[in-house]
Structure formats: structure tokens, C-alpha cells
Amino acid sequence: MADYIVDETVDITDVVCPITFVKVKVALEELDVGQILRIRMNDGEPVQNVPRSCKEEGQQVLKLLCNGDGTYDLIVKKLED
Amino acid sequence: MAFSNEQLERYARHIILKEIGVKGQKKLLNGSVLIIGAGGLGAPAAMYLAAAGVGTIGIVDADVVDLSNLQRQIIHAMKDIDKPKVISAKETMEEMNPDVKVNAIQAFVSSENILELIEPYDFIIDGTDNFPAKFLINDACVMAKKPFSHAGIIRFKGQLMTYVPGQGPCYRCVFHEPPPKNAVPTCKEAGVVGAMGGVIGSLQAMEAIKYLTGVGDLLAGRLMTYDAIKMEFRTIKLPHDTSTCPVCGENPTITELIDYEQAACELK
Amino acid sequence: MNIIVAGVKKEVPENTTVKELIYLENVETPDYVTVSINDEFLMKAQQETTVLREGDNVEFLYFMGGGC
Questions:
Q1: Which class is domain B31-266?
Q2: Which member of A7, A13, A17, A35 is catalytic?
Q3: Which CATH architecture has domain A8-77?
Q4: What is the pLDDT of residues C35-61, one digit of tens each?
């Protein structure tokens, strides 16, 4: 059981850096503080960079889940507007 | 206003900046800047602001493009010779970024038109090459409460300062009145390295971007100087007492705009 | 005595006036330069009578009109 409820999902498996994080930022913009975003991303560069970039923006990274198909789900809680 | 995929890609490097982000980019797209002078300073400033996605850019200049301009005025090219500079500039900016609306105004600024010209814009860039215009722009911006960036370049040197209403001295606080004709060399007679316009004009664009997005500290109350020979930037703190200034002070004596006479050799 | 001119420490004779300093420093347009001392503007008329003091921080602000 997940201890959080996902409010919105954004899929960035179809884009490459830096548009990956750009799409995440746009999605976060739409959320209220305290809401939770699930980001579906590819292995490799996105998994290395997007969680770090989210932290640098002051957001809280809750979990990184391996989907077993080469993609990951990053769960981020919006802390800053 | 939602961004198109093309806009997300175009502005990606702004949007990923914590200080700008989606909100800042929207501020730029909703912002407006008037550039007076499409020359050495105005050309790079206009290009960077167009590339940045400043939604409305006005550009004022009366001249046509001359071969001798191309050493530094990078917004114009060979094909533009004899074309009005503002038309050439508008074409370059629109080719760079279709998000930008460019208002090309082919005119000299004077006491007759300056207030009307600056009125619709959020920020003004002074890229003119003569003191009568610089004092006119200063006085008009003080009277209309508009922020503006002053700059000047000559030989290997440049300077700039930003006026923000209520936040420090204006250009006239520092320089009082235009020097007599030919008392101070101009870049036409003394020369200037083309890249000087790039350095200082880009800094003016930076000030406009910072003003529109509300990011960082503006160059208000400070004069920045650049000496390319020594490769040295300095920021000189300006006196903050502006109470006795004839235009921005407590009891202004200059309450109407002045058309100072232009040195004859500067007019074509 | 020691003063600071445009950010650089300089030694100048005692009782040097601002006007003298303008010439010592070879200011290109001595009649058209704004002087500030310790972050305050000095009126042009006072350049001749203002004597510099130990530790003064002098800045020359030059007209720069080019943009063409």
C-alpha cells in the first residue's frame, strides 16, 4: 500500500534532456503545495538527473519505483511554489 | 496561457532555471521593452531580448543601415544596407523568434514624441549615441516613472547604470547636463571595438530580463564600468542623495523636456 | 598621504586638491568629469577648493556617449 495519493501524472519517456525536466516543472506548476506528482521516466539520464533537479528546486522526492519495463516512477511532493 | 511544445523546447533553458521557471518565462512573454537606437548597443540587446521571448519589443531609430555599421551592429547584414535600421532589426528579430511582436519606429526621439513612445513599455533601453538623446531619455523616464538602462561605449571602454524610480540616482544626478558640442569624444570620431557593444548591450538586455522577471539586484544606485584593455569590471557606488537633482530631486527645476542641440558632425 | 582613486591605493602629496588630482591622474576630459568622494558627489565649483584627506575614496565618473 502506498502511503501517498498521486494527484497528477506526467510522462516524460517520450522526450530527452532538457525537455524532461521542463515538462516536470510545467506539471509541478499546475499543482498546489502539498500535492503529489508521479513522473514516469526512462532509465539512464532522466533517472540520474530529474530527482536531483527536483530536490534542487526545493521539492520533496518521496520514492523512485522501478517498473520493470525500463521505466521508473518518481514520486514528488510539491513543497515550493 | 499554456506553452506549446515548441515553446517548451525553445525556452527550456530558461524554464529549468529555478529563478525564472515557467512563471518567469510567462512574465517575459507578457513583458515589453523599448530599445532606443538600433546601433552598437541596441543591436545585441534587441537580439537577446527577442531570443529570450520578450513578448513586445519596440525599436526606435531614424537611420538607414550603412556599411560602416556592420563592424558592430550584428542585427544588420550586407543585404540590409540602405534599409531603415528599424526594419532590418525587426526582420532579424522576427526570424529569430515568431513569439515576439516588434514595433519598428523610424524616428529621432525628441521632446515631442518621447513620452508617447515610452508610455506603453515596461522597461526602456537607451542605446543612443549622443548626449542630447541620453538626457532626453533620462528626463522623460523620470517624469513618466519608467525604469531604464543607460549605457555608453567608446574605444575599449563602456559604462552602464539602471534607473528605477525611487531607487537611487538618475543619469542627470550623476552627469548634470550634456557637455558642450565636441567637448567629449564620441565613438564616431574616437572609434570603438565592435565587441564592446556586445558586452555592454548584452548587460542592458540582462537588466531588462531581470527587471521583467523580478530576479536579482539591478544596477540601480551603481555605475558599472568596463575597461577591456585592463580586462576589468568595476561597480562604483553612486551617492544616494538625489534630493537636489533638477529632475528627480525634491524640488525639480526641470519640469519640461529639453531638446539640446546636437553636435553638427553627429547629424547626417 | 594615501588615498584611493578608482579603487586603487595611491600616494599623493599632502594638501592635494581635487583639481590637482584630476591633472595628476591625466583625466582625458578634465572639465567634464563627475567626481565623488566617499560616495558623495562633489560640485564642480568645489574641485579647486576641496583638499583631499588621508583615506579618501575618490571616483571619477566619465561621460560616455557612444552607442552608435
A1: alpha beta
A2: A17
A3: 2-Layer Sandwich (3.30)
A4: 999 999 999 999 999 999 999 999 999
